[in-house]
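Example 3.2
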Amino acid sequence: MTLDREQVLRSAAALLSRRSTATMDEVARAAGIGRATLHRHFAGRDALVKALENLGIQEFEAALDTARLDEGTSEEALRRLIAAVEPSAGLMSFLVSENQLFEGDEVNEGWNRADARVSAFFRRGQERGEFRIDLTPAWLTEALYGLVGTAAWSIQAGRVAAQDFQHMIVELLLGGARRSVEQ
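Structure, written as tokens:
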């Protein structure tokens, strides 16, 4: 039987984003494999976390490319981004919360690249008069990440329907990010 590495990583991300202190045994169980199998593919927790980070960054950057953030209105681009990131929401949730797993100053350059692209998107929306200017692009970026992570967790826990993922995030973020006529 061939190990589906990506499925193992997704299972690990789902578990670790909810319980960052989960053991490798628990990760193996969540992935439906034995601990020895997990260790053959990931020498330890650090290797597993690094693989999760790499897959998450790769998928997030692909979602950013798919979303074509420079095309159309900012609202249209945001809707495309949320749709593109939905299949990777569990990994995105992990990336947002992974700082609990690391000690030290190591930062993934891919995450910095993706983060800069999202911040630039919000800045452009502000410059076009489509987003509020009293909220920084960095804050809007963090709010987006938080909403994606929270939606993924809520769906995983069965508290909200998966079909509502895009609607919940876009409407809540835009309801707070839209620039009102009075400003």
